[in-house]
Amino acid sequence: MDAELTEGGPVGAGPVSAEPVVAQPAAADGAAAGPVGGEPVGGEPVVAQPAGADSAAAEPGETEPVVARPGAAAGAAAGPVGGEPVAALRRALVDLREAAELSATRLGPDPAATALMAAVRLEERLDRGVEHTIVAVQGGTGSGKSSLFNAIAQMDFAEVSAIRPTTDKPNACVWGEGAEELLEWLGVDRDAWIKRDSVLEEHIGEFRGLILVDLPDYDSAVQAHQLTADRLLPLADVLVWVTDPQKYADPALHQRFAEVARAHPGRANVVVLNQIDLLDPSEAGQIARSLTELLVGDSLPSITVASVSAVTGDGVAALRQELTAHTAHRTAGLRHAAADLVQAARRLAEDTSATQVDAAWLAAAVAAAVDALVAEAAPGGQVAPAVVPDAAALRAVCDDWAVTAMDHLPDQWSLALAYAVGSPVNIAARLTQALSVLDLPLLPGRMARWWRGKKVARERRAEWERRLRGAIEPVVDRTLARPTAALLADISKLAELTDRVAAAGAAAGGEL
């Protein structure tokens, strides 16, 4: 980001080095700090220092300090997060991949692709650690998103301009150490993030582990901005949606918000009504209530709504305290990973895990198919059996099989059944081969005495049917019964795997 950082001051247009932007602590007399040249030691970002201990005590325009939530003493460093919950999630990821591969084999790539992408995303996050909390600030053009980012960070870092869109790449502010791999994973350039870590900051302990990311506008006219926002949204542990009095009721905003929120039901979301300084208090309250009602109409009744002014600072302290609730215990990342795992499993198992798979009907279906084919191959009268039933008879047998099978399968598996079982052409070829080698006895000739001929005919017809049945049953078994049984087994296995993944994710999230 081609901008020079000043603590509490305007953003200039001076050039910067390839390393993260640097801010020096203020002098003892409170003079504003200037830029510092030179390279950071060891390639690590130089820490941005606040103007002084007094400056962190309250938000601009407010007097109340940020209140620490129970269980997180101000300034206390949190212990490592993970242990058995992370190990359980890794084991569940193995099951999720197996379930996705099975689904891809049977149902095609679409359902499985989403699950596999979720598995890759979750594994990458676990590999980089879940002790940090990624809070993404998302909003439309003109909503004051970057101004709010600066207000939360208590420094002017994200570029603010009347020219829209301003944010063309993600910016980040980090509290604490060890976030480099996550920032690289998020795609935040080295010159577009800054680290806040100072004993002079009263609330650094509460925010330690927070990665605050300013996303490009979701409604930007530049497609690359939209793609960047879409890529980063699934990676955030907490999503802060910023709107304003002019656009808070925009259907496009609510549609996008609802889609993203439902795609990640376990993630915390905060909706911020910014620019309340442009309204009188009664108008601000009325619009906030209207926004809440709209969210209820979006079937999102549990979303927190915050009213703020990034310009005057009104409401920013309360918003910071809300974010503290998600960062204090440093488990939001693990909760998000566990919830995404559960969601991926449930989507993969739609209309499958609720199906009771019973293979008892298969034996009766096989017997019915064999009876039909034998009847067609051994017609009545004193003639030799047909080499193979005709095409219409074979089609009727296959159609009857499909109807019977689909009564015991989830609807989405109908195409899988069609691919699994043999086609009439394939069955005809197998029957031709099986029946062509049969040695069938001839019926009595016309000169045989009628009572003896009738008896012999019955005996030989019974032998015909026995031999025909012995040849046809293996064909039905190979082309219809076995593929269907394997399909039923895969449905049961997929249901078992996805249920196990969902249970593991729910248990891991519940242990936090």
Descriptive key words:
512 residues, alpha/beta, Rossmann fold, 8-stranded mixed sheet
Short description, anyone?
The protein is an alpha/beta fold. It is 48% helix and 8% strand.
Any overview of this molecule?
With 512 residues, this protein is an alpha/beta fold. Among the domains are: 131-329, Rossmann fold, CATH 3.40.50; 361-510, no CATH class. It is 48% helix and 8% strand. It is built from 15 helices and eight strands. It has helices spanning 84-107, 109-128, 145-153, 180-186, 204-207, 223-232, 251-263, 281-297, 316-327, 332-348, 361-377, 391-406, 414-420, 424-436, 450-510, and strands at residues 47-48, 133-139, 171-175, 193-196, 210-214, 238-243, 268-273, 304-307. Helix 4 (180-186) links the parallel strand 3 and strand 4 (193-196). The relative contact order is 0.12. The model is unreliable at 1-80, 161-165 and 447-451 (pLDDT under 50).
Report how far apart the termini are.
Answer: 37 Å
Return the CATH class of the domain at 131-329: Alpha Beta
Based on secondary structure, the structural category is: alpha/beta
Q: Give the full name of the CATH homologous superfamily of the domain at 131-329.
A: P-loop containing nucleotide triphosphate hydrolases
Question: How would you summarize the topology of this molecule?
Answer:
Blueprint: E1 47-48, H1 84-107, H2 109-128, E2 133-139, H3 145-153, E3 171-175, H4 180-186, E4 193-196, H5 204-207, E5 210-214, H6 223-232, E6 238-243, H7 251-263, E7 268-273, H8 281-297, E8 304-307, H9 316-327, H10 332-348, H11 361-377, H12 391-406, H13 414-420, H14 424-436, H15 450-510
Parallel strand pairs: 1-4, 2-5, 2-6, 3-4, 6-7, 7-8
Antiparallel strand pairs: 3-5
Helix pairs in contact: 1-2, 1-10, 1-15, 2-10, 10-15, 11-12, 11-15, 12-14, 14-15
